[in-house]
Write a structure and sequence with these properties.
CATH superfamily of the largest domain: Glutaredoxin
Helix content: 40-55%
Order of helices and strands: HEHEEHEHEHEEEHHHHHHHHHHH
InterPro entries: AhpC/TSA (IPR000866), Thioredoxin-like_sf (IPR036249), Thioredoxin_domain (IPR013766), Thioredoxin_ResA/DsbE_sf (IPR050553)
Organism: Rubritalea halochordaticola
Keywords: Coiled coil, Cytochrome c-type biogenesis, Disulfide bond, Redox-active center, Signal
Subcellular location: Cell envelope
Structural class: alpha/beta
Oligomer: single chain
Protein name: Thiol-disulfide oxidoreductase ResA
Distance between the termini: 27 Å
Number of strands: 8
């Protein structure tokens, strides 16, 4: 079975991808079964069914947990993989739920899936430490009971994916990012209404489809001014509003307007948005043009150097963005120096795949600077 690999550097491009899809990111799971078999499997495990036995897994942290029917307990089974960028992004949210409700009856179980061995997961979980404080298991492989009785039976086609079980019965299956405190509390206190929840989800899905029907044609046609006007019709607390504006301004390459938007974000006008979010999105496409030098100089504060004892992978990722900012701010010498320093420190990165990807990226950037005095957007270098 071929498994998808998601190099760490690819995460640099995920920000803009999420802006354009306007949905929770989810990595496609490998699927080898014939269409008829897959269709049949989708019908065999549904909400309201008795949960299959939790068996056939290898425990990497905590456990074993064999039964999912202890009175008063709510079980959140979170399926993820080390190669899945969206999975990694949602781990802090899942961890927060565990820390807040673990003592109140919530049992979180992370299950590493769609990987040929548990080696990568073991290393990842160990490195996460308290950032992944709940029990974690490895699925046991594609022929193990967990794969057949849970993933295949439920027709899971993408991760992250969560199953929620109470009293031995599956209450819902959903993307973990959509599991909030209100939902967990209703499950714990017994007020959760599966039928009502399903109806609400259906209504939300319909509203989302209508939303996309209005927005996506404008984005696909590149009518960015109309996209911005559409965004302005949304409520101020709608987190899609700033996402759409960022996408439109970066595609328009209107760096002057984006800098003004950044100031609004810094003033906390938009809920849950930070200047780092805006800067990261912008850095994927920022290029020389009106307002770009000023934007680069302003954004350098976001990507300032971190202490020597910080995670080397994060230092390298920020460093590549920072070196490009230095270049666009007019300091070519500083940009080259930083890239060379990053290249010299690559051996400190433990993830061999990420190390190789960053090495290639840095070499491409240095070649561009030295050969034709340019530093293209990071995503374009990655795709060369």
């Amino acid at each position: 079975m071929k498994l998808k690999k998601n190099a760490t550097i690819a995460c640099l491009a995920m920000g803009m991808a999420s802006l354009n899809t306007l949905a929770y990111a989810q990595a496609e799971a490998p699927a080898e079964a014939p269409a008829e078999e897959a269709a049949e499997a989708k019908q065999s495990l549904k909400v309201g069914d008795k949960a299959p036995a939790f068996e056939g897994v290898e425990w990497l942290k905590g456990g074993p947990i064999e039964k999912l029917d202890e009175k008063g307990k709510v079980y959140l089974i979170e399926c993820w993989a080390t190669w899945c960028g969206p999975c990694i992004q949602v781990i802090p949210h899942v961890n927060d739920l565990h820390k807040k409700y673990g003592s109140k009856g919530l049992v979180v179980i992370g299950v590493d899936v769609f990987e040929e061995s548990s080696d990568a997961a073991k290393a990842f979980v160990e490195k996460q430490g308290d950032k992944m404080s709940y029990p974690v298991a490895y699925w046991g492989g594609e022929d193990a009971a967990f794969s057949k009785n849970w993933l295949n039976a439920a027709g899971v086609e993408g991760i992250p994916h969560s199953f929620i079980v109470k009293d031995g019965v599956i209450q819902l299956m959903t993307h973990p990012a959509g599991i909030d405190e209100k939902l967990i509390e209703s499950l714990l206190d017994g007020s959760f209404d599966a039928a009502k929840y399903a109806a609400e989800q259906e209504a939300e899905q319909k509203a989302e489809e209508e939303f996309r029907a209005k927005l996506m044609p404008l984005m696909q046609a590149g009518e960015w001014d109309k996209v911005i006007e559409f965004a302005k019709t949304l409520k101020e607390d709608d987190t899609r509003k700033p996402q759409i504006i960022i996408a439109a301004l970066t595609n328009k390459k209107d760096w002057k307007a984006l800098l003004e938007f950044r100031k609004e974000t810094a003033a906390e006008k938009y809920k849950d948005f930070t200047t780092e979010y805006v800067d990261t999105a912008a850095m994927l496409q920022l290029e020389a043009g009106e307002g770009s030098e000023e934007y680069a100089k302003t954004a350098l504060e976001t990507f300032k150097a971190t202490p020597e004892d910080a995670d080397q992978l994060k230092r390298t990722e920020d460093g590549v963005l920072r070196s490009r900012l230095r270049f666009l701010a007019g300091d070519k010498e500083a940009a080259v120096k930083e890239l060379e320093e990053l290249k010299g420190a690559l051996d400190k990165i433990e993830d061999e795949n990420a190390k190789a990807q960053f090495g290639k990226l840095i070499d491409k950037a240095l070649a561009k600077i030295k050969d034709d005095s340019s530093f293209p957007p990071v995503y374009s270098l990655f795709n060369e």
